[in-house]
Amino acid sequence: QKCIEILIFYAAAQKQAEPAVLQPTPQPKDDFQEELVVRPLHSGDIYASFQFRTLWETDFMRGNKVSHYRLFPKSLGQVISKFSVRELHISFTQGYWRTMQWGQPYLPSPPGAELWVWFQDSVTDVDATWKELTNVLSGIFCASLNFIDSTNTVQPSASFKPLGIGNVTDHRFLRYATLPREIVCTENLTPWKKLLPCGSKAGLAVLLKSEKLFHSSFHSQAVHIRPVCQDWQCKTTSWELRQTLNVVFDLHNSGQGKREWSLFKMFSRTLTEACPLASSSKIYIDITDNPEGEQFELSPATSLLSQAMVLGDRRTFSVYDLTQQDTFGSPVSLLSVAGDMLRPLLHAERYVAGYGLQTGEIHTLMYNHHPYRSFPVLLLDSVPWYLRLYIHTLTVTSKGKDNKPSYIHYQPSKDRVRPHLLEMLVQLPPNSVTEVTVQFERALLKWTEYTPDPNHGFYVGSSVISSLVPSTVAMDTNSTRERPLFSSFFPCKEESSYFVRVYTEPLLVNLPTPDFSMPYNVICLTCTVVAVGYGSLYNLLTRSFQIEEPSPGLAKRIANVIRKMRGVPPL
């Protein structure tokens, strides 16, 4: 009996010593979609908009460390986790979007670089986190974002609401900055393409050839990260990474007098396969203005059509599904006559007036082209500190009458510390032009604060105008995965209006500039005086003089030779 107890005890000990079988941890689900929208513009140009969306069911906000990355890029995931980022929006744009010629873009962006970030409420020092984040993003995207500091960063109080879940947020955790002089080139496009799951090896990213993209009228690439709802009830959330690239190509003329375009002519490449990791890969061709095929024809033809509410209008698209093998073959459009374009309901311009290098005036024009409806707009203007605004000269006029803003937030600048921040809520009357003017005085910078080309001028970032514009059709308020990507970026909560963000032109302002050639002239003159004057004196003081006897004449030298031959001492 004692032996049996020992065996039972030994068996129990062996059972406890066996390693426990680990249950597999469920990995977060992720999904990748890609699409290309091609829209023939009424000016004859071609507008191509790429959108790549990666959804990941994970939670960075609770401080959970994620070590396994499949489709979501690890570099951006670590940035979100380390810096407690709630939303991140960054864009690099070359050129200016001509609203009156091309209409409204799907995703607007200002010239240069733009960055605005919402931080979580757990961040204690937002300014220090913002500075470190800009340095990290500068390395990721190979850009000059490290030049973002307190002198060009603002904290808006009403603009740039979160585009993800949770719209009620303390604006102390928001930072916004622009670099209007940032040059966009291949060095920025290459790291942007590496963030895609398939890179530029398969799918729509194959068309992204830098030689063609940068040889265009307009080019803009952006990255947007935000938390979104998985369903309409918002029971589960996920992180959305949306990479967008918008480009406008010039008109392609053929030798037969017809205007034609194709994917190969625009990008010098053709599609061969969809991205294997993409659950959806589609090409949309806007045929709203071509219902009967009178203006252009598509080849190969497709019977798959789709309608979407885009920017307050119902648009019809021909859809090419790249997951189907019979789709491949470049869609070609033969354009004939361009029709009349409906004017955008909201448009804005800005310019600098005045003469001399002491004072000036900034004019901002906001156009409401709606024939009978007025709507409010929110204007944000960030002006550098070296343009000292006279805020008492601020005037807002519409149709020759004063238009008093219902909300004004102004933060004065501090020299070499922070810029001016002006936000206003203005009601635009129907079919009117509202003009906002403010006078300023130019400051004199230190000679070390000027750029290498100071006579070129100093850039001032674009003004930002946000508004809910009345819609001509009922907008779709259901945010589902079945909607096209280009129509689901800005959340729509009302059927009667849609959100629009408009950027004005950046300003180029001349400042009082000293004559930088004068120090060069002084240096040259000083060096000449030192070399000629002091050099000669130093040579005279340090040279050693020796007396040399004159050489004998020819007769004396001949006599000395003869005397030497005779053995007689020389003369």
TrEMBL record:
Record GO biological process: attachment of GPI anchor to protein
InterPro entries xrefs: PIG-T
Family matches, as Pfam families: Gpi16
Domain of life: Eukaryota
GO cellular component: GPI-anchor transamidase complex
Protein name: Phosphatidylinositol glycan anchor biosynthesis, class T
Organismal lineage: Eukaryota, Metazoa, Chordata, Craniata, Vertebrata
